[in-house]
Design goal:
Helix content is 39%, strand content 20%. With 422 residues, the protein is of the alpha+beta class. The longest helix has 33 residues.
RNA sequence: GGAGAGAUGGCCGAGUAGGUCGAAGGCGCUCGCCUGCUAAGCGAGUAUACUGGGAAACCGGUAUCGAGGGUUCGAAUCCCUCUCUCUCCGCCA
């Protein structure tokens, strides 16, 4: 959420910068609602001040018969206050609804552009493997090895669900443990294991609600949502809190499954593990001082990249342009892993600085010193990494001509020493 | 699922026959004084949000005692609904 006062004071500038995301931006309604809100608030508060003053006088008058006039008068004042407050409530609700659907302002560091095509390649790492045969896509490899069973996934749940079997299941688990160990031991993140479903406040805090309810699985009977990413529960850990400056930056990592409806992606990526309703992810989340947030973003990105480097999987980093930026982000880097079976780079991590956008929604503040005013923190997060897609990258990059897949060295301790699948 | 108890400021904890309670007291913290150092002691201060004025320092108003609603001139205190926590019973990995 943007700061209402900031919008009020910089309306034209805010509109112009939001336009770089593409689509329509109209903050005209904001100005009017904001003005009406303050007008109603002042009227109501003036009357309340009067009522408080007169009530105080009444309380000090022992003979109540002397103040019957004031009591009658205040009865009327209270009615007017009630009416004003009702109008105010409606205006504030509208204003809130409007503000919650306005996306974050892209950072000046975000390149301006209209689509994916305008994203900027920042760096490329690793050697793409050279094959003396035509590399297969992971779904063929996984099925042939008997470790990925798409048909059974569909039988158990439906399209976009997969059953991992045997060594495939173990490889997924090995990746999760490897990533968590790397981030906790080497990068000094604190591991969290949060609830996999959360309430409406949490979803609103990180920006999934109210605008993207259609993308979420909602439970029947209780107002809980399955999390689409660990970002939601982990960022909301500090919702409504005032943190101590000395404790910043806070770094958390968490493994969770993620659940997404993938509405609007019919027919897209229907084969294989790329786009599933349920997938595993290890997430990195940071709470930092505003002045440090862009430096922390670079570090977070490096922490995520380190996973691919250790696995020796080739990738590139791209900077998302304004038109491709997510709703809550001010600046985002995507890490894209090379998939030789599909002859393309594929997103495997998205690392973003949300600045104070989520912090304002979720009211996450910090106080530098005991006496200083609380300020909003900046929140960041990134995948470290999407586990299923990492498994995909291993199958495709480490495949051999006759079918087997070589397990990356760093994973072997997690695989009971096994070196090859198949 | 059933029965009961509770939710007050950074923390602990008073306050329920409605008013002088943004809220006693203690702890913590900040500043000052005092003391050869430390400890102790003394004094002052110590919430947040919105809003009006001001260049600012700051000054004023309103709201907040789990959340929402009601009664009343006036609610931390009375009534209703909800949420959460705790205890006991049941059930269960």
């Amino acid at each position: 959420m943007l700061d209402a006062r900031f919008i009020r004071d910089n309306l034209a500038d805010v509109e112009a910068r939001l336009k770089t995301r593409g689509g329509d931006v109209d903050l005209g309604g904001f100005r009017e609602l904001d003005a009406r809100r303050r007008d109603l608030l002042q009227q109501s508060e003036t009357l309340k001040a009067l009522r408080n003053k007169v009530s105080d006088e009444i309380s000090r008058t022992k003979d109540k018969s002397q103040v019957q006039g004031q009591i009658a008068e205040m009865r009327e004042v209270s009615q007017r206050i009630k009416a004003l407050d009702e109008d105010l409530r409606i205006v504030e609700e509208e204003l809130e609804r409007l503000l919650l659907t306005v996306p974050n302002i892209p950072s000046p560091a975000t390149p301006v552009g209209t689509s994916e095509a305008d994203n900027v390649e920042v760096r490329v790492w690793g050697e793409r493997p050279v094959f003396d045969f035509t590399p297969k896509p992971h779904w063929e490899i996984g099925e042939a090895l008997g470790i990925l069973d798409f048909e059974c996934g569909a039988k158990l749940a439906g399209a976009r669900f997969t059953l991992y079997r045997g060594i495939g299941a173990r490889l997924e688990r090995a990746l999760i443990n490897f990533m968590l160990d790397l981030h906790t031991e080497r990068h000094k993140y604190v591991e969290m294991l949060p609830p996999f479903m959360v309430n409406r406040e949490s979803m609103t805090g990180t920006g999934q609600l109210p605008k993207f309810e259609d993308d979420l699985f909602h439970l029947e009977g209780v107002d809980y949502f399955l999390i689409p990413t660990a970002e939601v529960p982990v960022t909301n850990i500090h919702r409504g809190e005032i943190l101590r400056g000395a404790d910043l930056p806070l770094r958390y990592t968490a493994y969770t499954p993620c659940f997404r409806k993938e509405a609007g992606s019919y027919g897209k990526d229907t084969r294989g593990l790329i786009r599933q309703h349920q997938f595993n992810k290890v997430e990195l989340v940071k709470f930092v001082r505003p002045a440090d947030s862009y430096r922390e973003l670079e570090k977070l990105l490096a922490d995520a990249e380190e996973v691919l480097r250790q696995l020796r999987l080739p990738y590139r980093v791209v900077e998302l342009c304004s038109g491709d930026l997510g709703f809550s982000a001010a600046k985002t880097y995507d890490i894209e892993v090379w998939l030789p079976g599909q002859d393309t780079y594929r997103e495997i991590s998205s690392c973003s600085n949300f600045e104070d956008f989520q912090a304002r929604r979720a009211s996450i503040r910090y106080r530098e010193e005991e006496k200083t005013k609380p300020e909003f923190v900046h929140t960041l997060n990134g995948s470290g990494l999407a586990v299923g897609r990492t498994l995909v990258a291993i199958l495709e990059n480490c495949q051999r001509s006759d079918g087997p897949v070589v397990i990356p060295e760093v994973l072997r301790p997690y695989m009971g020493g096994q070196e090859v699948i198949g």
